[in-house]
Amino acid sequence: MPADLNVFGNLMDITPQERKTTLSLASVYAFRMLGLFMILPIFSVVAHRYAGANSLLIGWALGIYGLTQAILQIPFGMASDRIGRKPVIVFGLLLFLIGSVIAALSHTIDGVILGRALQGAGAVGSTLTALLADNVRDEHRLKAMSVIGMTIGLSFVTAIIVGPILNSVIGLSGIFWLIALLALIGIAVVLFAVPTAQQHVLHRDSEPVLGQFRKMLKHPELLRLDFGIFAMHAILTALFIAVPILLVHTAGISEKHQWVLYLPVLILAFIAMVPFIIIAEAKRKMKPVFVGAIVVLTLSVCGLWKFYHSAWAIGVVLFFFFTAFTLLEASLPSLVAKIAPAGGKGTAMGIYSSSQFLGIFVGGAVGGWLFNHYGLNKGLLFCAILGCIWFLLAITMKKPQHLSSKILHLAKVDNVKALHTKLIAIPGVAEAMVSPEEHLAYLKVDKKILAEKDLEQFKL
After folding, report:
1. Cα separations in angstroms, 117 against 98, 192, 394
2. Domain 7-395 has CATH 1.20.1250.20
């Protein structure tokens, strides 16, 4: 979820076509995220009814989605540069649909694992971002991405709340059928609602660039953030193997009534998170707020280890967990954008996103194995260890500069080196990368001191 909480109001500033693109692609993102998270709060309880199921295989079923996403997301994005955005997105959504149908029809846990793997193979996140960049002007792209980020966050909250309700009405197989229907609607939205771009170009601020991977993978600050999103989603997935079972067997809340706990917890957590986002961004206290949230996340896991015998105790622990989680989920992409070198944000975000999905896989696979062989305590210990490692990496990171990305359309590029020197000399410009073939300059700027008028001489 983004730091800008007025994102939908910002859409009034853009053209009707850009608004249509943003809202239609946001709906496709929402359908996919509902498919990922809707089963999370009930799967570990309900999946034991499948033939051959145990905690190990249930963890694999939860996590395998992340593995195929992590492997295929960047290749899908690069393929879309060659064969077009919409064909790749439709193909990915078809895989997502087929996987959902296989999971819905399955009576064994192995069938569900196969279905979930195919769901994840529809890895079109980076391609959706590229299609958005094709249709939305550079100066309005951040607003559009903020809307999509907010939509993803709302989808997560909605999925956690409605998952248990839907399970009580239509069952787990019915949820998979619903996810398949959402995928079908998503395909229709892409084909008939999303405007077709005039041309597909490489967007360095939105897409991975093959030649930049080595540089990004050697960047120590970005690697800290990549580990952070990996650890956070590994903890989330592992935790949701344990929490639904705890609520049923120790707190006495059946799976169909668990939404009664999740609803107030998630709403209160979102409200509690907002002031810290404002402090981090407006007061430029990003590092202390960020590190503090990691501490709260880790301590909440430890709290669940000790206080899991009543619904009230679990609810309080989950409140602190989700307050920290939503705060970190909003802060991490912002930090990646601030730290990534000029012209490298797309590649940095691609690696970051793959790390997130890899965390889902590891959390499901390792968490399931630990819960299956060693019980609750060892699974929670795994989560706590990940949190401690993340804390040590975060506490040693450099204080991030409050920089924003800016794209400058250049009138002409005669001498790249000379132009770079002139751009860097402008007050407020911290970094510049000139791309002569695109006639663009990618800048990292401090908006508080940027002299916008000094950039006018270079604009197209």
Report:
1. 10, 28, 32
2. yes
